[in-house]
Amino acid sequence: MTATAMQARPAPSPRPTADQVREILIVDDHPLMCDALALTLKISFGLKNVRTARTLAAAVEQIRMQGAPDAVILDLNLPDARGAEGIVTLRRQLPGVPITMISADLEGSMISTAMAAGAQGYISKSLSREALVDSLRRMWEGEHVTPECYRPDQDGAGELAKAELARSFSTLTPQQMKILRLICKGKANKEISYELSIAEATVKTHITAIMSKINARRRTQAVLLANSIRLFEAG
Predict the structure, then answer these.
(1) Is 5 helix (H, G, I), strand (E, B) or coil?
(2) How far is CA 202 from the centre of its chain?
(3) 43 occurs within a structural domain
(4) Do 76 and 184 fall into the same domain?
(5) 41, 47, 77, 233: most buried by Cβ count inside 10 Å?
(6) Average pLDDT over residues 122-137
């Protein structure tokens, strides 16, 4: 896929220019991919330091300890996060930082979900170096960039609903997100208590908070809402 095989639309709010991006965080568990991407960015953008993390948890901790980067490149599938969970979690931590999703999965529903959850762009891992650099530059200049093969959902109300739901999930604490992930796996409260080494009463308290934050009345509804934005599974 070349740079011309990408679509873009203006972002609703201004972003830092590409020249102002000085520190980037790459979150990817494949060492070769991560190292090659870091080297490409250093050469193409004149960066002296590119931070890396192999898991979502490591990225969250690094941001807490070292502060926010100017931009993030986030792999869709990580050892501890699949689907939209990564973008939802990092968007909570980095409300004003452009986050680029990168993946070999170009399924329309996944791209749509990532963009609704707050991604600045979604790009293929198969892009050439020139196309990758061009796409990132455009995103850091304020555009939303997606593959040309992507056909956005024409249902504007549906996209707004997805975005609002993603914002609701982003209010969950890390512990609540873990509990919701286990609920989506069909785990009972007792099993969740054992797996997370917390009291069953604590699990119930967290579940009550989760239900309130995402406006769900039952566990099954919470699972359906999570699945509707592919929060934990890339498919």
Answers:
(1) helix
(2) 28
(3) yes
(4) no
(5) 41
(6) 94
